[in-house]
Amino acid sequence: MLVAGTSASGKTTLARGISQRLDVPHIEIDALFHGPDWTPRDTFLAEVDEFSSRPEWVTEWQYSSVRPLLAERAELVVWLDLSRTTVMRQVVRRTVRRSVRKEQLWNGNQEPPLRTVFTDPDHIIRWAWKTHHENANRIAALLSERPELAIVRLPSHTAARRWLDGVLGVTAS
Questions:
Q1: DSSP for 133-148?
Q2: Alpha helices in 23-170 (DSSP H)
Q3: Which of 118, 133, 143, 148 has its CA 20 to 30 A from that of 112?
Q4: What predicted TM-score, i.e. pTM, was given to this entire model?
């Protein structure tokens, strides 16, 4: 199962929720991709091929090098289609928190200094802004290629919680 959405939209949080409710493995794709110093890991493609060949899994639908493989093997895509305003609020809040707290991310990486939002064209905040619209295009292309593939569009976190609690058969406690 794939969880699609803009950077910082909540894909990993939603994927973890799905994993817990369905008792299937969640593979955090960022952890497979990012090596030390933010370099791509040499084993990334092989690891994605390996886990996605299993009968059950959930991961985030990102990284152009593996999107086609994941889309081919997925039985369901859950699209977290949040507004740009919501995504930008989340990405700024998350980035500031991670930077100030010097949170360890994947393989020892940390967010770069906040000032790099002004100097790095691929800074996560700038990346989320400029790529927000691309998810709708990817989903449309995917539907064209695989019209039989079920795609669940969730336009808000409230919709995502309701879907998790209702459709997956678990009621909130």
A1: THHHHHHHHHHHH-TT
A2: 29-33, 44-52, 67-73, 84-101, 124-131, 134-145, 157-166
A3: 133
A4: 0.91
Closest CA to 131 of 30, 8, 1, 2: 8
**19: number of CA atoms within 13 Å, CB side?**
16
Alpha-carbon span 66 to 51, nearest angstrom: 12
Segment 94-137, tens digit of pLDDT: 999 999 999 999 999 999 999 999 999 999 999 999 999 999 99
Residues 6+ apart with CB under 8 A from 73: 52, 53
Cα 152–159–26 angle (5° rounding)?
60
